[in-house]
Automatic annotation (TrEMBL):
Residues 1-19 form the signal peptide. GO terms for cellular component: mitochondrial matrix. GO terms for molecular function: tRNA (guanine(37)-N1)-methyltransferase activity. Pfam families: TYW2_N_2 (PF25133). This is SAM-dependent methyltransferase TRM5/TYW2-type domain-containing protein. One of its GO terms (biological process) is mitochondrial tRNA methylation. The lineage of its organism: Eukaryota, Metazoa, Ecdysozoa, Arthropoda, Hexapoda. It catalyses: guanosine(37) in tRNA + S-adenosyl-L-methionine = N(1)-methylguanosine(37) in tRNA + S-adenosyl-L-homocysteine + H(+).
Length: 217
């Protein structure tokens, strides 16, 4: 009986690590920052460069409005990236999320039929390379990629005027400069990032603040 349980457990583990599960994991990772940035303590934006292969549909510009309604669930959404771009003549390129779509057949059958009404089929499906950079990711994506897995990510912050307030735990302090710079870059209207210190001003009874990045005012 114990031997049979061992066999069943082994088969279950094998099933979890099949090529299909690896493929899904690979698709999920494609839009994440490069793994090489993990553990970075000083922000190096050049290390966030990453070239990926993405798909797009080339469509007649006259049909753009109804076609984009069909493709909306599949479109690629990144910061500082236009997922609809000009192509030759009156044609438009609609870029698709590689997590969901790597070939025309990945589109739902009903959506393929709806696209066929506009003479769109697998012949309109093409691929190209896209260079991702630091500018394409949100602060949360960057910090999750950079901070070691055994560290907690930045749980939250408050924006008071143009100042971002943090209360970092001790085990995050070695990354405080990087965290400050990332939040300064990514939070709209932020001009200064500060971290609350444990010490209290004895005269006015408020927590002292350390400027991590930005204007020191």
């Amino acid at each position: 009986m114990c031997f049979m349980k061992f066999i069943i457990s082994s088969l279950a583990l094998f099933k979890l690590s099949t090529p299909r599960s690896c493929e899904i994991s690979s698709k999920m990772d494609i839009l994440l920052p490069p793994s090489a940035v993990q553990g970075m303590a000083v922000l190096d934006k050049e290390m966030f460069k990453k070239t990926i292969s993405i798909s797009f549909l080339e469509v007649d510009g006259n049909n753009l409005t109804p076609v984009i309604k069909i493709l909306k669930p599949y479109t690629l959404k990144l910061q500082h990236f236009r997922n609809i771009q000009d192509s030759s003549g009156n044609k438009k390129k609609i870029f698709l999320n590689p997590t969901f779509v790597t070939n025309f057949m990945d589109l739902k059958e009903n959506d393929q039929k709806r696209l066929s009404e506009f003479n769109i089929d697998k012949g309109n499906f093409k691929t190209s390379d896209l260079l991702l950079t630091y500018e394409n990711w949100k602060a949360d994506d960057i910090l999750k990629a950079v901070l070691p897995k055994d560290k907690e990510t930045v749980a939250g912050y408050s924006l008071v005027g143009h100042i971002v307030h943090l209360n970092l735990k001790e085990n995050m302090l070695e990354y405080k400069s990087l965290i400050g710079q990332v939040l300064l870059d990514k939070i709209k209207n932020a001009k200064t990032v500060v971290n609350k210190l444990d010490s209290i001003d004895t005269t006015f009874r408020y927590f002292n603040m350390e400027v991590l990045s930005g204007e020191n005012d």
